Amino acid sequence: MKELEARIQSEGHVLGEDILKVDSFLNHQIDPNLMQAMGNEFARLFESQGVTKIITVEASGIAPAVMAGLALDVPVVFARKSKSRILSDEAFTADVYSYTKQTTNQIRIEKRFLSASDRVLIIDDFLANGQALLGLKALADEAGASIVGAGIVIEKAFQPGRKAANEAGLNNIQSLARIAAFEDGQVIFVDEEK
Ligand code: G4P
Ligand code: NA
Ligand code: NA
After folding, report:
1. Which residues pair with 109 in a beta bridge?
2. What is the DSSP string of 110-172?
3. Distances from the Cα of 174 to the Cαs of 62, 92, 142, 177, in angstroms?
4. How many A from CA of 15 to the centre of ligand 3?
5. Does ligand 1 lie within 6 Å of residue 100's CB atom?
6. 143: closest CA among 95, 106, 109, 166?
7. Ligand 1 atom 19: residue of nearest CA
8. Contact 118, 53 (CB under 8 A)
9. Can you give the residue ranges of the Phosphoribosyltransferase domain (predicted)?
10. Of 26, 58, 74, 108, which one's alpha carbon is 20 to 30 angstroms from that of 68?
């Protein structure tokens, strides 16, 4: 998506080897117009899939997920994160390890918000190592729901997330921006690779 790539180029900051800071429009301050355009694009990409529900994980997945939900006219459920492992009969739960933060969180969705009759679209802000995506897939699997695919705002294609998701059987992954590499602090998109 050209509009998103342009914003990444103009406002993104590369931190260290592999982190892209985009807190002026996605991860802290949010640009609602850009977010709505992205939601419309997700809706276009998945409109033929019979989506009944969108799931994401708090916090940064919520804004793009809500805009996609608005465009597809389906409810959006965000998995809640907690540090402690709370056992519950009322919730589907999965453990998600963050390589970036080196912590494990439990994510949970109340059972009443996800069922075997759902056709689920997963939305998230970043695809890096894929652990968040795998955790969300695990919640949908626990519910017996069908997963139609995943919509990602920014994929770091040089990290193993897509491969890990594919190996777990999650195949229809659509990313609005795909980053091939960071070179001298510059962002190189997949379609610009030489
Ligand atoms: P994964 O989600 O693909 O498994 O990757 P990882 O464990 O590395 O990511 C942990 C957190 O860091 C996630 O946010 C993820 O969205 C975010 N993240 C990963 N790479 C980048 C990056 O290059 N830039 C930015 N800005 N974030 C990145 P989270 O812990 O779920 O936090 P929240 O922002 O959703 O609250
Ligand atoms: Na994040
Ligand atoms: Na995230």
Report:
1. 92
2. EGGG--TT-EEEEEEEEESSSHHHHHHHHHHHHHT-EEEEEEEEEEETTSTHHHHHHHTT---
3. 17, 25, 23, 9
4. 17
5. yes
6. 109
7. 128
8. yes
9. 35-170
10. 108
Q: Helix, strand, or coil here: 40?
A: helix
What is the 51 CA–ligand 2 centroid distance (Å)? 24
Closest ligand 1 atom to 130 CA: 3
Q: Is the CB of 15 under 6 A from ligand 1?
A: no
* Domains defined for the chain, CATH in brackets: 2-189 (3.40.50.2020)
Q: Given this model, what pLDDT does residue 194 score?
A: 55
Distances (CA, A) of 5 to 38, 39, 114, 177: 12, 15, 33, 6
- Tell me, using a 6 A CB cutoff, whether residue 24 lines ligand 1: no
Q: How far does the centroid of ligand 3 lie from the alpha carbon of residue 153, in Å?
A: 10
Helix (H, G, I), strand (E, B) or coil at 183: strand
DSSP-derived secondary structure letter, 105: E
Model confidence, pTM: 0.96
Residue 137 and residue 19: Cα distance in Å, rounded? Answer: 24
Round to whole Å and give the CA distance between 116 and 142.
9
The two structure tokens encoding residue 31: 């640009």
56 lines ligand 1 (CB under 6 A): no
